[in-house]
Hints:
mainly beta
Amino acid sequence: xxxxxxxxxxxxxxxxxxxxxxxxxxxxxxxxxxxxxxxxxxxxxxxxxxxxxxxx
Length: 56
């Protein structure tokens, strides 16, 4: 999933994955949108942030 990087954080979203290109200090996400997968997940262990893109 290709997502643009925004100048402002997504309100109410906390991200602590500091290796992601959308991470901003203070645990903010600067992605223009996020996608959480998969459908029909039953618990936290089954979910995944499809927006994640590693910093280069």
